Every structure is written in structure tokens, then in C-alpha cells.
Amino acid sequence: MRPITALVAMLALALALAPATGLARDRHILWAVQGKHNTVYLLGSVHALRAADAGLPQAAERAYEDAEQLVMEIDLDDAVADPGAMLAEMQRTALLPAGQSLRKVLGDDYDAIAARASQSGLDLALLDRFAPWFVATTLLQLELAARGYSAEFGIEQTLATRAAEDGKPIQGLETAAQQFALLAGMPLPMQKRFLLMTLDESAELDEELGQLVRLWQAGDADGLARLLSTEFEDFPDLYRTLTVDRNRQWVRQLADLLDDRDDYLVVVGALHLVGRDSVVDLLEQRGYEVAQE
What we know:
By secondary structure, this protein is an alpha/beta fold. It has a domain of 205 residues. 52% of the residues lie in helices and 10% in strands. The chain has 14 helices and six strands. The chain has a six-stranded mixed beta sheet, sandwiched between helices. Strand 1 and strand 2 form a beta hairpin. The N terminus is likely disordered.
């Protein structure tokens, strides 16, 4: 298993991490943090699932019922209200600078990448004005959609729909524009490497996602952390930018929630909650009591 699978998970581009129906286990990728007057639950999640995998573990159901408010990486209420605006913002952010083109950025690798991308139904000629990170994420979404994954069945969308019905407010730790800017801020050589790895790994995606799914289903946070620490040895700068730096920003916001009186359910990508410098680790370093459910 090589780094791109972990990157897929880290970017929350649609891993099937929900447990199978009836699966019995003692622990979940869910933690409870005790504030002075409240509890903040941390649920490891992803954005897309297959229909057969849709649903929440019972521990997550209980956390949802207990929480007065939800917090997600971005406020899905805004995304649902105007999805066209979000797509337009993503495409605007992904445009290469004037005078640049995808063909120029990819250089001698362009033809091989174009041939491989066409096998997934992606015509690079139509994306020549866009940065490699946009091509990589588009490719990943195509690959995962071909396997039956959809945001419609994802944990975030499931919870956002229920929260709207129940009148529970949702807030975001960051905006979609901030997420796009983070990807666009990667140096072009790093983006090219990300795209090449995406293409190399897509053929093994089923097997490799399965390994991550099994660890998640078992609630094996330590195993998941060990796996991912190995995966990112060859990609430390991207890992730091997309996970650790964001974790540190989020923890400051979570500290404010822990001074509130409402209980919160915080839903973020599972890889933000395991291992060194994870949200869980950083909260413990601040002296909070954090218990895996």
C-alpha cells in the first residue's frame, strides 16, 4: 500500500468507511471530549459511501442525539444551498496562471498521463487550463464513482439532512474556498507528483481502500495511525499542509466549543483524529480528557 490511498482518505474524497450492517465491535472512530460544562464528540468520517454501506454506527447515533449542534469541515448547508457557486469557486481556484497550461506543467509525462486518464474517461485536452491537483481530484472522483460511491450516501450528507429535519444548526471549521486555496497553494511539482501517484495507484484502489475500511470498522485507531505514518514518509510536506496544520487551526476552534454549554458533534475526516499531531493528540496535549467511544 503506497501513499496515494492515504491521500485519498486524507482529502476525504470518498472512502467507504462506514461499518457493515450488524458489525459488532467495542470501539469506534469516535471520541468524547469533556469540557467544563459540556461534551464535544469527534467523529471520524468521509464524504461518500456506497448505498449498501450507508448508515451510522450506534455510537455515532447516540452522539448525534446528545448534541445540540453539529460542526463539520465545511458548512454543508451552504454547499447544498448553492452547489453551483461552490463548483464555480473550485474551478476558478484551479485555473493555472496566464501563460501556463497543463501540458507545460506535466512536460514529458503529459502523453503517458493523458493515455492513462483516458482509461478512466478523462480527456486531459479539456482540462488544459487547470492545475494538476484539480485533475487528480477529478480522476479520483471518477474512479470512486465507477465503484458506486456517492456523497448522497456519505456520513456528512446523512447527518446534514437529519440536522435540517431536526432543526440542529451546522457550522463549519473552514470554508470550501479555504479548502480549494489549500490545494491550489501546493507547488506545481508537488501537484504533478500527486497526479502521477493517483494514476499509478488507481488500479489497486479496491484492495487498498479495503485495508483502510477494515481498520476503521474495527475501531483500530492505533493500527490506522501506524499504517498512515508509513504511508506519508514519502510525502511529508503534503501531509503537514493538509492535515497537521489544519488540525492545529481546528483545535483552537474546538477549545472555544469546550467552553460552551451546548454539546457538539464534530465530524471531520478520520485521518485528522488518529496518530501524532492529530486533533485528539493536540487536545490531550492541552490537558483535555479525551476518550474513544
